[in-house]
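=== Structure Prediction Worksheet ===
Name of assembly: unnamed complex
Input type: mixed (protein and possibly other molecules)
Chain count: two
Listed entries:
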Amino acid sequence: MSAPVYNFAYLDEQTKRMIRRAILKAIAIPGYQVPFASREMPMPYGWGTGGVQVTAAILGPDEVLKVIDQGSDDTTNAVSIRKFFAKTAGVRTTTRTAEATVIQTRHRIPETPLGAHQVLVYQVPIPEPLRFLEPRETETRQMHALADYGVMHVKLYEDIARHGHIATTYAYPVKVNGRYVTDPSPTPKFDNPKMNDSPALQLFGAGREKRIYAIPPYTAVVSLDFEDHPFERYRHDGSCALCGSAESFLDEVVTDDHGGRMFVCSDTDYCEGRRGAAQEGAQEGAP
Amino acid sequence: MIERDEDQPLLVAEGLSKWYGKQLGCRDVSFSLYPGEVIAVVGESGSGKTTLLQLLSAQLAPSRGRVRYCMRDGATRDLASLGEAERRFLFRTDWGYVHQDPALGLRMSVSAGANVGERLMAIGWRHYGQIRHTAGDWLARVEIDGGRIDDAPYTYSGGMRQRLQIARNLVTRPRLVFMDEPTGGLDVSVQARLLDLLRGLVAELALAAVIVTHDLAVARLLSHRVIVMKDGEIVETGLTDQVLDDPHQPYTQLLVSSVLPP
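=== Predicted Assembly ===
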């Protein structure tokens, strides 16, 4: 018995061509959800089957891959997807944002600003921002076609009426290139401004829902809001307990059952980078 | 309000017919509706009233005939020639549609304020304070306590829901409102209050309206003219008091005489 032989990056070439066509179409119409023939992947839905297919379709042998889950490089999902491509494509992997050319992500955009040579691939559970307001898919497609988006503000209105402010904290709807209202996948709204005018290409893959959409480089991405209740970023009021950053997005970690807690950077690479730099600085400063 | 030529009809139905396969919905219906005029369409169940209303409001395509509508810019357009985007725009600005069942016309799990404000947001209002203020105004006009503005309609009584639906429709100051049995399913005292309110609003806003009802009392209270339908066709039409007090056709006579005396 010989070991199973995979095509480069697992998917067969015809499938990759099909996905690339969908990606090209998605780039041509920023924010528009392009249907594609999503394949069964060797992982359950909800674990990033859409993102994995997009990554497989754009990966070349010289790419350097980074995979993050909730900002972290070392959680199960990130580790297994990284290993998956190391095995099936033999590409170099990294945890350093600056070194990566393809970054597959679930729920975060790295703190380190991205460059024009990088592609950010999002794993998307629910690509349709209108889903919870209008359950009929036929109707939401009409609404997108006609830019009939009044109902999106109904949701924000409800937030303010109930909580006094826009309480949506993740999957905060954006308008891409002044046309399509798009779900930025469940990233915290803290990351929304990073999507605007980004030099990196942003691709979104939803495997179960069989949709791909894209935000091309240097595209205007505006978070929806009201004139008197403008969009605001949100982060915990504090600084990272490990690296001391007062700018990064923080995770709250409960440390005991007596109310003890600490805040740490959600982006582990950013946090490690800062700690490494601080250590070097301290060593240089020593006699 | 912009001065308008009162002689030009707002809505003209020309030879409207609708078949559902072999089943007739309505046949050869023609009439004109003038600005500020209220027409009641009466008849028994299955006489084609609701079909007619859906044809007039471009929710159904007629099998034959056409509907012409005088747009806000004064141009008269055949409704069949409107694109989907134009039709939707018309529906949320210049028209209102009051369903018999308020659950069809409202978002039941979204607050009353957002229900009223939805049309405003759809036409581009982006100031929360203004939207909320306008919604509050309209709730007051339909006699809903301002304290209920953040409550969802599923917490409202039947009469309140119907009034909320009316506010939601009128907030963009439409010129034409379609009503399908607006008082159906309400008890008599609530009906009376709703009718009173509607009569006031129709007069105040100079609304034109097509009201489908099987209740001749509603027709008498609200409408200027009455169209009597039977088996999909118009059997009699005329001024409301004329038709109801001096019906000419046997069917109309039957209809009028079958109202139980209180």
